[in-house]
Structure formats: C-alpha cells, structure tokens
Automatic annotation (TrEMBL):
<comment type="function">
    <text>Lytic polysaccharide monooxygenase (LMPO) that depolymerizes crystalline and amorphous polysaccharides via the oxidation of scissile alpha- or beta-(1-4)-glycosidic bonds, yielding C1 and/or C4 oxidation products. Catalysis by LPMOs requires the reduction of the active-site copper from Cu(II) to Cu(I) by a reducing agent and H(2)O(2) or O(2) as a cosubstrate.</text>
</comment>
<keyword id="KW-0136">Cellulose degradation</keyword>
<dbReference type="InterPro" id="IPR049892">
    <property type="entry name" value="AA9"/>
</dbReference>
<keyword id="KW-0624">Polysaccharide degradation</keyword>
<dbReference type="GO" id="GO:0030245">
    <property type="term" value="P:cellulose catabolic process"/>
</dbReference>
<protein>
    <recommendedName>
        <fullName>AA9 family lytic polysaccharide monooxygenase</fullName>
        <ecNumber>1.14.99.56</ecNumber>
    </recommendedName>
</protein>
<comment type="similarity">
    <text>Belongs to the polysaccharide monooxygenase AA9 family.</text>
</comment>
<feature type="signal peptide">
    <location>
        <begin position="1"/>
        <end position="16"/>
    </location>
</feature>
<keyword id="KW-0119">Carbohydrate metabolism</keyword>
<keyword id="KW-0732">Signal</keyword>
<dbReference type="GO" id="GO:0008810">
    <property type="term" value="F:cellulase activity"/>
</dbReference>
<dbReference type="GO" id="GO:0005576">
    <property type="term" value="C:extracellular region"/>
</dbReference>
<feature type="domain" description="Auxiliary Activity family 9 catalytic">
    <location>
        <begin position="17"/>
        <end position="225"/>
    </location>
</feature>
<dbReference type="GO" id="GO:0030248">
    <property type="term" value="F:cellulose binding"/>
</dbReference>
<keyword id="KW-0964">Secreted</keyword>
<dbReference type="InterPro" id="IPR005103">
    <property type="entry name" value="AA9_LPMO"/>
</dbReference>
<dbReference type="Pfam" id="PF03443">
    <property type="entry name" value="AA9"/>
</dbReference>
Amino acid sequence: MKAALALFAYAALANAHFTMQYIWKNGVDQGQNNYIRVPPNNNPVTDVTSTDITCNVNGLSGSGVQTVSIPAGSNITFEWHQHAQRTGEDAISSGHKGPVQVYIAKAPSSAASFNGQGTVWTKIYSSGLLNAQTQQWATDVVNANSGKHSVVIPSSLPAGDYLLRAEIIALHVASSYPGAQFYIGCAQVTITGGGNANPPKIALPGAYKGSDPGITVNIYNNLKSYTAPGGAVWSG
C-alpha cells in the first residue's frame, strides 16, 4: 500500500510541470506570453549539456517575439504557472523544491536574433535553501506569491538588447543525474540608459555539470546547506 501511494505521489509531481508565462515591468503586467520565448510544452529540461538549457526547448531563436524596452534599474517580475491559468491551482507544485535564479546576456545585435550561446550569461539573482530547519526553499516563496519573483536590473549594465533568463530548478528527484528538473524562461528586453559595466560571464550550456552539488543532491537527507550552480551573483 505504501509503495502504491509513493508511486501515486511521484506521478502527481511528475505531471505538475510549469512555465514562465508573464513578465512585469516596474509593477505593470505585460500580458501572457508577451516578450517571452514560449516553449512547446511545460516539460522540464534535464540534460545540462543540451542547448535546451539556454532558453528551453526551441529557445535559440526569438523570431516572431517582440522585445520590451526597460530602463536600467527596472524591477522585473517573472510569473510562472502550471497551465494557462492564474487561479484554481498552485502556481507550481508544492513538491517542486529548489532554487530560483536569474541571468542576463547582452545580444550582439537584436535580442530576437540572439541564440545565447557562448560565455555571455551573468547571474544577477539567486535564492535557494532559505531555512534548513523548516526546509523552506525559494520555490516555496514563489508559490506563496502566486508564482512571482522579482529582480532589479543592475543600473550599470550598458544600454542595448538582452535576453533575461529566469530559472527554477526542481530537486525532488535529483538524488541521481539526470534527475534535477530545469524550468527556464527567456524574455527579450532592450535596456535603456545604463552604464558601462563589464560583468563576469558564464556559458549555458557549459557552466553546469551533472555532478555539481547543486544539481545532483538528495534534499530529503537532512540537508543543512545548498550551493546553486552557476557561481556567484553579480550585484552590479
């Protein structure tokens, strides 16, 4: 009986996938799937060596996707949901525990034509295990906030077109690789104003390894601390 219940619970978690569906600019909702490279379904990416880790499946091109203008220093909110609805269910399944991260990459020309390949990504936000005693994760906060999390775009970034990459890593089956589930959403933005900073950069794919302790980890084994993949946050 216990085995059957465990299988049922696993199946429920496996089907509780989600996507990034909205971005907000300084508190203003920009509409469903606007300025976002929308994947074909809500399934996660599990292969960290695949180009799908960049901007999700079919995410290497933004052809047909509009680009939104944002001033440097803007507050950008990302909003995730399991299905094309904002009510009636949790934004993401409560069983999907893990970190929330945001990266940005400057396009050499237009955001729409940028494939995000190479050493181009800068991490500007990361939140992981918030309370080891209660096992509260960043994903719990996102779920409590109706699927939303926010980041301030560093005001020192140069003006130009960028990809904004938000990422939620679900670790409920990550005790072996591949197991961690990467939910990725990329938005196309044009930053106005700004400065002349040259922040540190990583490659996606490239920087993540299946053996990383933030990717292959048993979160149910009295976990005391967690280090997310991708290195340190650049504050600008």
